[in-house]
Design a protein that fits this description.
With about 600 residues, this protein is an alpha/beta fold. It contains 20 helices and 21 strands. The chain is about 45% helix and about 15% strand. It has a 4-stranded mixed sheet with strand order 19-18-21-20, covered by helices on one side. The chain has a 3-stranded mixed sheet with strand order 4-1-5, with no helix packed on it. It has a 3-stranded parallel sheet with strand order 7-15-14, with helices on one face. Helix 9 packs across helix 10, helix 10 crosses helix 11 and helix 15 packs antiparallel against helix 16. The protein is elongated, with a radius of gyration of 37 Å. The two termini are about 70 Å apart. The model has no long low-confidence stretch (mean pLDDT about 90).
């Protein structure tokens, strides 16, 4: 009998157990909850995990009252031979008959059941095989503390240390049908236990050949812990073992950091005297869009094959990469997969547009990018942005921030390369200036090659297909070198100038959109800019600006007054206004705004 350790004076007495007459001791322990029940708890150290721990703390007897088939044994007294459920009913009836039952109450209880057949699982004690892991754990902890093994994200270090510092001996035996049998034999003549690598032919104690191998099999995680070197021919010193052990990085889910990752560390350091891997990246678990775990019974499972059939493999891969933030869960939303399918289509259409202009080109045309100082501003800008994207992607890969990899690639391809650069160079591609056209084609091809290489690890199929039809003799993109930074492309001044021009264009487009000016209507725009250098820059590219905002006139002034009938906005220190008279229904717009304000 166990009572809360705040009671005193009761621990020196014994209590007679009803129905059996067995005397049991009273012990004090913090495990008992005073708020639940009477504050006293009968413990069965042989039939409950928590009770087993209490028994260890107080050196209690571990009495098994049923066998492995759920039948009560001789320790159950007069109930021996009864099935466990029948026994429980009879005990309740006997207690009630003898006036020992005060009341019966219902309460919630977590009852373990077999996941296959639903049978209630009865905890019990049994003879098992254990590995003393404290010496192994100490080596693994030392390797992590010294930085020979790094864990990403870093917030898992504390969890790892907590598990390892409180580690217990590892039970490696399992009572299941399939697995690696434990290499232990018992002599039927003298009872001698033999453990050996090779099956013994006779007992080394008495010489008997009556040897029976252990029926238990090794824990799955024990076998898995040997994986980094057992798959490479160990214990033989093979060429594969020499080349591939240790490996670079292990990628797995955070929920098996202890079950698998830590055990591979321990086994690798013990048997190979070397860490099995340098980095461990722990990814999140994929759940549904509401954060619930996927299960067939709930009906929220996303079949990857169905998803691939609907959206494409590359779109699905990119979605998972974009979601792979360093956290505990990924919420899978099919709407996001649809969005990234549009992204893959965007790249495909951009490549088709580029192919129209470069299919007959000599690939050497990309050499124009080797001297960016001689190129026009849009080319210098896109090369600088390409260099920055390569830098950010490589850094994110080195730090296992795969979602940032996807984000940098997405933003660059969609918004900078497609939305801005390809639009900006159309005048050169379709113009009569052959030098301007060749420069545009060369830079466009060069940047597209970098884009495909950056994206290939995430979206291998579309990038391989596009790469195969680009001009020149090409092998598979997968054996190309991954892009590296090119400092010659870095041009902060070009980026600042293009940011100004793109900001002005976006501001005028916003005014048009908010005023609901029809896309085909030509407008007149005015810029008030007091900085002469900025006025010169804007004036140099006024033709491109007019084409992109559909303006027949663009006035660039150092000062002025904004008319009352104009749409007006500010970008940096430049005032932008667009006269709207004759372009919109003023009365209708006023009525619409009044309605919105009223709502």
């Amino acid at each position: 009998m166990c009572i809360r350790d705040s009671y005193s004076g009761l621990q020196d007495i014994g209590i007679a157990l009803p129905l059996t007459g067995r005397t049991i001791p009273v012990v004090l322990d913090h495990h008992v909850q005073r708020e639940f029940g009477t504050g006293a708890l009968k413990v069965t150290p042989a039939h409950d995990r928590d009770d087993y721990e209490i028994g260890l703390r107080h050196d209690l007897d571990r009495i098994k009252v049923m066998d492995d088939h759920g039948i009560m044994n001789e320790a159950a007294g007069e109930y021996a031979g009864l099935d466990r459920f029948a026994c429980r009913k009879k005990i309740v009836a006997d207690l009630e008959e003898q006036g020992l039952l005060e009341k019966i109450e219902d309460y919630d209880h977590a009852v373990g059941k077999c996941y296959r057949c639903g049978t209630v699982v009865e905890p019990t004690t049994s003879k098992q095989w254990f590995v003393s892991v404290r010496p192994l754990a100490n080596k693994a902890v030392e390797a992590v503390r010294e930085g020979r093994i790094r864990i990403y994200p870093s917030n898992w270090y504390n969890t790892f240390y907590s598990w390892m510092d409180n580690i217990r001996d590892w039970c490696i035996s399992r009572q299941i049908w399939w697995g690696h049998r434990i290499p232990a034999w018992t002599c039927g003549s003298c009872g001698q236990l033999l453990v050996a690598v090779e099956a013994p032919s006779a007992c080394d104690q008495c010489g008997s050949t009556d040897l029976v191998q252990e029926d238990d099999v090794l824990d799955t995680w024990f076998s898995s812990a040997l994986w980094p070197f057992s798959t490479l021919g160990w214990p033989e010193q093979t060429k594969e073992l020499e080349i591939f052990y240790p490996t670079s990085v292990l990628i797995t889910s955070f929920d098996i950091l202890f079950f698998w990752v830590a055990r591979m560390m321990m086994m690798g350091l013990h048997f190979m005297d070397e860490v099995p891997f340098r980095d461990v990246y722990l990814h999140a678990l994929v759940r549904d869009k509401h954060g619930k775990k996927m299960s067939k019974s709930t009906g929220n499972v996303i079949d990857p094959l169905d998803t691939i059939e609907q959206y494409g493999t590359d779109a699905f891969r990119f979605t998972l990469t974009a979601f792979a933030a360093q956290g505990r869960e990924i919420r899978m939303d099919e709407d996001r997969i649809e969005g990234y399918r549009h992204f893959i289509n965007k790249l495909w259409n951009a490549a088709r547009f580029a192919q129209m202009h470069i299919k007959e080109c000599d690939p050497a045309i990309t050499a124009v990018a080797e001297s960016p100082a001689d190129l026009a501003l849009p080319h210098r800008w896109i090369l600088s942005r390409t260099n920055e994207t390569v830098r950010e992607v490589r850094r994110a890969l080195d730090e296992y921030r795969f979602n940032d990899v996807a984000s940098h690639i997405y933003q660059f391809i969609w918004h900078e390369y497609c939305d801005w650069y390809l639009e900006w160079i159309k005048a050169d591609l379709y113009g009569d200036d052959t030098t301007a056209r060749d420069n545009a084609r060369g830079v466009m091809l060069q940047v597209l090659e970098v884009i495909l290489k950056l994206l290939h690890p995430v979206a291998p199929f579309v990038t391989e297909e596009i790469w195969s039809v680009m001009p020149g003799e090409r092998t598979s993109i997968m054996i190309e070198r991954f892009p590296e930074e090119n400092q010659a492309w870095r041009d902060e001044a070009a980026e600042a100038s293009m940011e100004l021009l793109m900001g002005i264009i976006s501001t005028v487009r916003t005014i048009r959109s908010e005023a609901d000016v029809h896309p085909t209507r030509l407008i007149e725009a005015t810029l008030l800019c007091g900085d002469p250098d900025k006025r010169d820059l804007i004036g140099h590219f006024s033709g491109a600006i007019r084409a992109m905002v559909r303006a027949e006139q663009l006035h660039i002034l150092d000062s002025g007054i904004v008319p009352d009938d104009a749409g007006h906005a500010l970008f940096q220190d430049i005032e932008v206004f667009v006269p709207l008279k004759g372009l919109i229904d003023a009365a209708g717009e006023i009525a619409k705004l009044a309605k919105e304000r009223g709502r």
